[in-house]
Amino acid sequence: MNSYSLTHLVLVLLALPFPPTPPPLYCLPGAVGGDRNITARIGKPLVLNCRGAPKKPPQQLEWKLNTGRTEAWKVLSPQGGSWDSVARVLPNGSLLLPAVGIQDEGTFRCRATSRKGKETRSAYQVRVYQTPGKPEIINPASELMAGVPNKVGTCVSEGGYPAGTLNWHSDGKPLIPDGKGVSVEEETRRHPKTGLFTLQSELTVIPAQGGAPHPTFSCSFSPGLPRRRALHTAPIQLTVWEPVPREVQVMVQPEGGKVVLGGTLTLTCETPAQSSLQIHWIKDVSDLALWKGRDWEL
Ligand SMILES: *[C@@H]1O[C@H](CO)[C@@H](O)[C@H](O)[C@H]1NC(C)=O
Ligand SMILES: *[C@@H]1O[C@H](CO)[C@@H](O)[C@H](O)[C@H]1NC(C)=O
């Protein structure tokens, strides 16, 4: 049934009279018209239309640009020459940039006069972008200790333009650096040749005591241009250890810890009743030798 109707559709399309003429506002990928802000991906071609220009020569039109490649305004001659590899005027009056680069950011203007003598101006503000690789968390912590600063990990995003920002999230909520419980150390580097950015953000947190025992952390890259999507790292899940409560005390019997040789010294570790902690006895290592061979009971 499906294959039948598909065949039927194909036959109908083939039966159409000669190539349908494109509608007047035919939109080709990368072709834009009007006074606009344009964002173009680095390395891709960009076509800017010169509004009001006759579709074929002879035309009266002038393209000029003020970008990172020019000193102030440069008028492009239709013959192009050395600029052909960067920007050239097409036979239909549009401007083609075969491979947009960071230096092409700037303003492009065209002034065209129609066959009837009507003048039309187009202006474009061009900004370029490159999507970085997916951000990653490097050197992630394996566990955290509540109440003290812990490095969670370093989020890295490589090869983006413009720089954009890195943001941390915990359990799905944004972590706002406040210099107290949450702090980040950021670094932005620029590749000397490509001009692309590498961002690094190291997160340090002080987990609240009695807080979530297994928080997740993730990081996202927010592009520096509007309407471009954020990129997220995979989340990491960490275990938070609670420190030994302050109420833990060591009781010494007899008081002061002074005993006669051969006497008994009792040390008692007191913890709050509700705690289910493991108790470890720790002794100065340097003294350990003195204890060798003595009675030492737990
Ligand atoms: C001019 O030609 C280019 C390349 O074929 C095309 O992308 C662009 O849309 C054309 N401009 C107009 C105004 O049709
Ligand atoms: C173009 O971008 C500028 C800021 O970069 C903004 O003020 C302006 O409104 C934008 N214009 C359009 C048509 O989006």
From TrEMBL:
Q: InterPro entries attached here?
A: CD80_C2-set, Ig-like_dom, Ig-like_dom_sf, Ig-like_fold, Ig_sub, Ig_sub2, Immunoglobulin_dom, Surface_Rcpt/Adhesion_Mol
Query: What kind of membrane protein is this, topologically?
Result: Single-pass type I membrane protein
* Keywords tagged on the record: Cell membrane, Cell projection, Disulfide bond, DNA damage, DNA repair, DNA replication, DNA-binding, Endosome, Glycoprotein, Immunoglobulin domain, Inflammatory response, Membrane, Nucleus, Phagocytosis, Phosphoprotein, Receptor, Repeat, RNA-binding, Signal, Transmembrane, Transmembrane helix, Ubl conjugation
Its annotated compartments are: Cell membrane; Cell projection, Phagocytic cup; Early endosome; Nucleus
**One Gene Ontology term from the biological process aspect of the record:** positive regulation of cell migration
Q: Give the matching SUPFAM superfamilies.
A: Immunoglobulin
Q: Which residues form the Ig-like domain?
A: 23-127, 135-232, 245-298
For this protein, the record's Pfam families field holds: C2-set_2, ig
Q: Name one GO cellular component term.
A: cell surface
Query: Which Gene Ontology MF annotations are present?
Result: DNA binding; laminin receptor activity; RNA binding; S100 protein binding; signaling receptor activity
PROSITE patterns, sorted: IG_LIKE
User: Signal peptide location in the record?
Assistant: 1-17
Is the Cell membrane keyword given for this protein?
A: yes
This protein's name: Advanced glycosylation end product-specific receptor
